[in-house]
Specification:
With about 300 residues, the protein is an alpha/beta fold. The chain has a single domain (about 10-300), classed as TIM Barrel (Alpha-Beta Barrel). It contains 13 helices and eight strands. The protein has helices at about 25-40, 55-70, 75, 105-110, 120-125, 135-145, 160, 165-180, 180-190, 225-240, 240-245, 270, 290-300, and strands at about 10-15, 50-55, 80-85, 115-120, 150-155, 205-210, 255-260, 280. An eight-stranded parallel beta barrel has the order 1-2-3-4-5-6-7-8, surrounded by six helices. Strand 1, helix 1 and strand 2 (about 50-55) form a beta-alpha-beta unit. It is globular and about 45 Å long. The two termini are about 25 Å apart. The structure holds 1,3-dihydroxyacetonephosphate. 1,3-dihydroxyacetonephosphate binds next to strand 8. 1,3-dihydroxyacetonephosphate binds near residues 215, 216, 262, 263 and 283.
Length: about 300
């Protein structure tokens, strides 16, 4: 497998997955943190940082409104931008209807979400049926249809982790399964009344590599291994789905590869040095403003 250094996103990401945590107070604290980050940031940096916040659904709108109140924060400083997303969408293949308890991607787009987390290990554990490959593909299609950018999680278990070959096989199979039917998904996603070839010229997604045994465990995977696996993943994407998606103006050089699992304010200093990683998916430490600020500073200072 060749390591392709070209495949690097043109910005860096810190993705804050609150999981089933948060409060109005946390929304307010986040806004203060963002103000501080922007005001302290060196405006001459070349690599922009996008902070993506994924609160539980009841807080999405509150957080977005508080963010709006900050004014032109994203304009003042091209280097740091903030976007909001959701942690899950329904696998029901409709925008509206009698589906008690379900939330569609159309609704999430309506309240200002830009991103949607798909195929997260914890969601799969809690609700395997709703996260079958068929349902993941429905979620992908409906995200694109409603202009949401999917953050697609992939990973492997501790048993598979012991051999690079089994990791490679697992991530290869998972990526290929999820992105099989690509033509069909894209064509279906374009059936939205408001979207046609002119307005919907680009397919975007982020891939998040999260080994399941590192999630919530305080065990960061060895950085050398993360580097190797991230290279393998970028190779798999470029070898297997790039040709399929070129016609949809998907730019492989823009693919963001995100790493997640027990990132904190200490280990970020090391893992930040990886040239293969375009950003981080953070769980517990995204709830701790001091740690998160520290993580953001490290990403701003190290990744380039
Ligand atoms: O699952 C994760 C982010 O989506 C990682 O969670 P932790 O950072 O708490 O390990």
């Amino acid at each position: 497998m060749m390591i392709d250094k070209k495949i690097t996103a043109n910005k860096k990401y810190v993705i804050c997955n609150w999981k089933m945590n948060g409060s109005v107070l946390l929304c307010e604290e986040y806004c203060r943190m963002i103000e501080n980050l922007v005001s302290c940031n060196d405006k001459n940096r070349i690599m922009p940082l996008e902070i993506i916040v994924l609160p539980p659904n009841p807080y999405i709108n509150i957080f977005s409104r508080l963010l709006d109140n900050l004014g032109d924060i994203n304009m003042q400083n091209d280097i740091i931008s903030v976007r909001v997303g959701a942690q899950s969408i329904s696998s029901v293949d409709f925008d509206f209807g009698s589906y008690t308890g379900e939330v569609s991607s159309k609704m999430l787009h309506d309240i200002g979400c830009s991103y949607i987390l798909i195929n997260h290990y914890e969601s799969k554990k809690i609700n395997p049926t709703c996260n079958s490959i068929k349902n993941i593909q429905i979620k992908l299609k409906n995200s694109w249809k409603n202009c949401l950018i999917p953050i697609v999680c992939i990973g492997h278990t501790i048993e598979e982790h012991d051999s690079i070959n089994s990791v490679q096989e697992k991530v290869f199979n998972e990526i290929n399964e999820i992105f099989s039917n690509f033509d069909f998904l894209i064509n279906e996603s374009r059936k939205n009344d408001h979207i046609n070839d002119k307005t919907f010229s680009k397919i975007e997604f982020l891939l998040a590599y999260e080994p399941s045994f590192t999630i919530g465990s305080d065990k960061l995977q060895e950085i050398d291994k993360v580097d190797v696996i991230c290279s393998i993943i970028k190779d798999i994407v470029s070898n297997n789905i790039e040709s399929n998606i070129q016609k949809y103006k998907f730019n492989i050089n823009m693919l963001g590869l995100i790493y997640g699992g027990s990132i904190d304010q200490f280990n970020i200093k090391y893992i930040c040095n990886s040239s293969k990683i375009d950003g981080f998916l953070i769980g517990r430490k995204s709830l701790d403003i001091e740690s998160l600020t520290n993580i953001c500073y490290n990403v701003l200072n190290r990744l380039s």
